[in-house]
Design brief:
The structure holds three protein chains of three kinds. Chain A is an all-alpha fold. Chain A is built from twelve helices and no strands. In chain A, helix 1 crosses helix 3 and helix 8 packs antiparallel against helix 11. By secondary structure, chain B is α/β, with parallel strands linked by helices. Chain B is 38% helix and 22% strand. Helix content of chain C is 77%, strand content 0%. Classes of the chains: A mainly alpha, B alpha/beta, C mainly alpha. Chains in contact: A-B, A-C, B-C.
Chain lengths: 297, 338, 315
Amino acid sequence: MKHLWTRASASLGRSGMLSAAFLVVVLVAAVAASLVAPADPNQQSLLDAYSGPSGAHLLGTDGIGRDILSRLVFGARTSLLGPALVVGVSLLIGIPLALAASWYGGWVDGVVARVFDLVYALPGLLLAVLTVALFGPGLTPAVAALSVAYVPFLARIVRAAARQQRVSPYVDALSVQGFGVLRISGRHILRNIAPVVVGQAAIAFGYALLDLASLSYLGLAVQAPTSDWGVMVSDSDALIKGYWLPVIAPGVLIVLTVLALTVLGARISGEKPPGYLRRSRRAAAAVKEKSTVGAAA
Amino acid sequence: MSADAPAVPLLELTGLTVDFTTEDGVSRTLLDGVDLSLAPGEALGLVGESGSGKSMTVRAITRLLPRAATASGTIRFEGADVGAMDAGALRGYRDGGVGLVFQDPRAHINPTRKIGAFLTEALVRNRHLGKKEALARAEAVLAEVGIDDPARRLRQYPHEVSGGMLQRVMIASVLLAEPRLILADEPTTALDVTIQREVVGILDRLRRDRGMGMVFITHDLDLALAVCGRVAVMYAGRIVELRSAETLHERAAHPYTLGLLGSRPAIDERSERLSAILGRPVSAFEAGPGCAFAPRCSFATETCETTPPPLTEFDGGLVRCGRVEEIHAHRKSEEANA
Amino acid sequence: MGRLLLHRLGGLLTTLFLSSIVIFGSLYLAPGSPENVLFGNRQPTPEARLMVRHRLHLDQPLPVRYWDWLTGVLHGDLGTSMVTGQPVADRIGAGLGNTLILVLMTMIIVVLVGMGAGLAAALLPGRVDGAVSMLTSVSVTVPPFVASTLLISVFAVRLGWFPASGLGDGVAGKIQGLILPACAMALISCGFLARVTRNAVREQVEREHVQTALVRGLPRSAVLRSHVLRNALPPIITAVGLLTAGTFASTLVVESAFAVPGIGQLTIQSVAQKDFPVVQAVALLLVGAFVLCNAASDLIQAVVDPRLREAGSTS
């Protein structure tokens, strides 16, 4: 356990570990919502409407006296479930397509690339709005539409990474030993590109969260009485009356969660952290200069 | 310094040292106390393997060192201290003082602009020439470096011409500025073998015609001997031997120079008994406390590993070897026995 | 250059054509027939239903209906709104201007602030770079709807500088009403563009040809302008194209948040009302804007970088 810890902190760095810790807290809150939340998220109490932060309501209440903190905790469930489904389904569709494209190349690759281009031409948000127009508002149509829209993003990354593996000697060696496509792709290539895939999936998770929250905000995905961060931000009544906490708190939580996901995703897929996250700025400068010297020599 | 250096040299390096700060903040020496002097119109060869510090020397001379690298010691160009120049003086020095021919013209010429724009840019900006006049000059120089149909080339983009032609364009750009000193950093390494000689020939001829000095950097000792009056052999950031090109074959004294002569394909019988140099070249910071070449030297003793030898006069040149006398005597006796 | 133009134009039309089929086809394959929208909660008699289906041409086969619609679109007839009975073209025309001004304002902010910050970060390593990187990391995670609520709560409700919803009268009122929505959309894009600009300029600064320019004694400003910036443009242009396209998508959210009478708000309203002819036309318009932005950025890139001109195979 201790070994795992040191290895994780070494590869994720301080920012990555901090992000991971934050995400774990959010996840635990979502799973154990009924244990963690101080109150029933739907318990109305008109006498307590728009009460500021207090001992009874740590983040205050909304216009009909519901406890904000409890709604945030329960809202984590729908807010995280949607993007998890989007990324999961996208990967299920995208990985086989990408592996096939990278393995066979040629016309298979060409066709897959064309289809991706076409889907890429449609913004995910628009695709989701159209789907909602067809099937009516709800989390399911929104998730289905975004799952399709996110396939090209993830599959392109998998394809590029798998392509690199495809031409490396160990794949030839396995081929010569008579291992089949499925075994080599499924067991060896996939295992080697796992960090990139997981990292990019985390980043995609963040963006899917933003898109779904936007849809819920518009009233097209998660529906109103249900606790959801996007739905909570859409409380324009509170906003206009100048009670900012019921609206800003879920907004800040969305931003922090997505920030943690992008930072963690970048670290997992092996991108170097930007300068301000590194220990020594001088060291950062030296890395860059080294590459120029290498190019010049 | 060698005796033939005149009173006011074109270029004079004294104790030039370049340190590089690595990722972990460790300081590493790439160039260690280089002394050199160049007379106006003279050509000097700088020969060594990669990592020997020859490219760093050129970068230090033009103040083009990467930010993580710092230079110490002095560089004087026509008596002026290059390190102390302000931005304006530095621009003047780079404009008409030195011209640099880079190794890879493909990377060193902006790919998004026409060849004509590349050639005339400095003339228009620094010399305030009219566009037409500048283009006419560029056309003339292109013809001089052996490019057919120069007017058409001026309208082409770099990716539309061959590497050999692009290197001639690079040489033309340097000649256009009429500098007193040309620095040529492995100008032919990126080219096909068949056109290497041709390009070097053009560079050599045109520089002589114009009386420009040149520092010619290469890992090819033969090439350096062909175009330079004197040759400095560098190893691990230091000069290990400096002598005139005519006498280097006969009088080479440093084991490393001997190795370089021996590692070429044999053209006469004498070089057959010298073996190629074993091991890999090291950079200055990898060298031990003693002679940097000692680990690869077949003559090395324990003293060589611990005591750094100075650069001393020997047989009409300068040699950095603690056992140079013994080795010389040993070789002479062997030759006599043969 | 001409061939590239044709190539891109062909690709553009193909994408538009395919999207129109997808959009048209899917909307009419939807569960719950379109005519139900007209009947609302009433139970129509079978005769009434048939009559309405005939009036909406729903009794004809799908390809015929698609063809009629397509020829109509090409003649400027986008159909009739099922909710208001107005021609769709009129409804779109009323909002198009607002949306275009909004997108233009957003992109002006994005280019000025995003590129400016990216340039500063690239050319001033250390503190400035660190500060910009930190700000961009955060700003790329702030979605337009969260930015909207933040801006409304501070500048509209607290300070009262701008209207919280709707547009004022006249050009000045319009601009004043669009400033907050533009800022809300610009925030996330500024972050992206700053990041792209920083990396592109950083990469070019370290390029060999920039050293050549420096070693020829050219002034720093000239080196920056005609070598560093010029060569860093292609990725920046691509990013601006993508971000403009994304901004069109963001109008769906932000126009709803600020009650701006534009295409985005019209789309969301029509979706809620199941007003299919309007949804169809607006969706196609947004896809068109998206595809056009990408094609335009490709062409501008070819103008900047001659190496991309001959390649008819840029796709």
